[in-house]
Amino acid sequence: MYPLDWLEERSGLIGGLRYFLFRKVPADTNWFHTLGSATLTAFLVQLVTGVILAMYYTPDPKTAHQSIEHITHDVTLGWLVRGMHKWGASVFIILMFMHMGRVFLFGAYKYPRELNWIIGVLLLATGLFEGLTGYLLPYDQTAYWATVVAININGTAPFVGPYLASLLRGGAEIGPDVLARFYSLHMLLIPGALIGLITLHLYLVVRLGVTSPPWSDEAAGEGPPEPQTPARAGLVRPRARTAVRGRPTE
Amino acid sequence: MEDPRGDMDRHQPPPSLWPIGFAVGVVCLLVGLIVSWVAAAVGAAIAAIFGFLWARDVVAAGRHEQPTVPAETDGAPPSAPPLPAQEGGSAMPEPEPAERFPRSVFLEASTLGLGALIGAIVTLPVLGFAVLPSFLKQGSKDIDLGPVENFPEGQYVVATFMADAKQGEISRRSAFIRNNGTVEGKPSFTCISNRCVHLGCPVQPGGPVFDAKKKDVRSSGSGLVELIPALPAAGFICPCHGGAYDQEGNRTAGPPVRALNRFEFLIKDGHLILGTMYSVASVSGTGATARIHKYGLAGPGQHIDGPEAWLYPLQPPH
Lengths: 250, 318
Hints:
heterodimer, A: mainly alpha, disordered C terminus, B: alpha+beta, 5-stranded antiparallel sheet, 4 helices, 13 strands, 25% helix, disordered N terminus
């Protein structure tokens, strides 16, 4: 394919994509290992539907709820896109927890993957914050009072709580600016942070490889020996490097 | 000779106490931003000094790892007669490839330093714009609830008003007002805020609300004030999480940690005016003779008396 060769020669992107998609994983991975990709897919759905919803939504206290009604009742397939975004948010959070449970129960957070666990926890917190800021946007009674309660829960944190609450609501009381503030957080700042963290998360997944399940013979060192691949240098401690190159002695 | 500590330890910086001083400075700076500019300046100075000392230690530790340049072997001064400039080789010896010149160190440092400076100049105003409006220019306006005659003695009235008419409906608030008659010739009112002190939901009167007797009063600055008589025989009840209060606002059941907030009031030109809100630990007695344990305004869910109040030592400006 000439165009692909042209691109590959000038960027290496094709080879990179091929490496990412067809990299080696343990033979005994199973369906539980797909929860991470499922979470990523849910996030991408939120990203796409959110961008479309932003074309119709107005973050103004007087017209915000009207624009939501307009999206739901007037815009062609608006009910579908809004429904996907609303229910997809719950799917995203639930999948994050399931993925976290899989990583925990498989012991996949252990050396050398501790950093990726930490990034995952940050992703969970950021994702929950995304849910909090998104909940205000329909701007009905439920949204308003739920946000009041959520901000006041933050306010009860020791020492910093009162300041955190003031920072979230942009002052001593919820004013007209809070809606736009939450909208900006919801569609610019937090998604940006999520995309950055997900990039790091995926980079570490590719670099460190996928873990076998805990019942795997391979993982216990009893299965057939893994063929030596020189490309996995990052997995080896610097001092042990010479030992691995010969025969594993320990 | 191989280093017995192995490869891993070589990259560890030496133990240092400077970060602690740096952290103290940063804390002092952050607290100072809210408390006073002097404290902020002192904190910034401490942070800068300790940050510099810390960075100096780290950089010095990094320098030690540079491959040592072999010492010059011929220490003797050149003994040959001077040559004319156009003859002979260059006076400077060719640099060793691994040698680090002060010039490159200077360029590295100035590139990083300039980048950090530009970053700080751009970031600080933006950060201030994002954070400071939440804490500056706070404060509430007085609210005019209209003529005192609209508040019959001994009866609760639900007053609904705008805290700031410029902000529109979002600033709509409610208060439960009861005229207690006079004490020693001075008028007495009970003015309770309807915001639950658990998490801020609107509490409702526990008893009939006489919508048919609603009175609309147009007042200056508070938009349209609605006055609805009510008979909160069972006190006040929050629909969100079941907090319950008696008629004086004392907590009787549920999760709230104190009594309902109250407003200061004054009477001006025959009008009842609500002033600033304050928090109440508890109220003993009732009506005009009640003793109110009054504290500065605190957020919902925050203790204002007892040991738990130590968890909330500083309140942001209200």
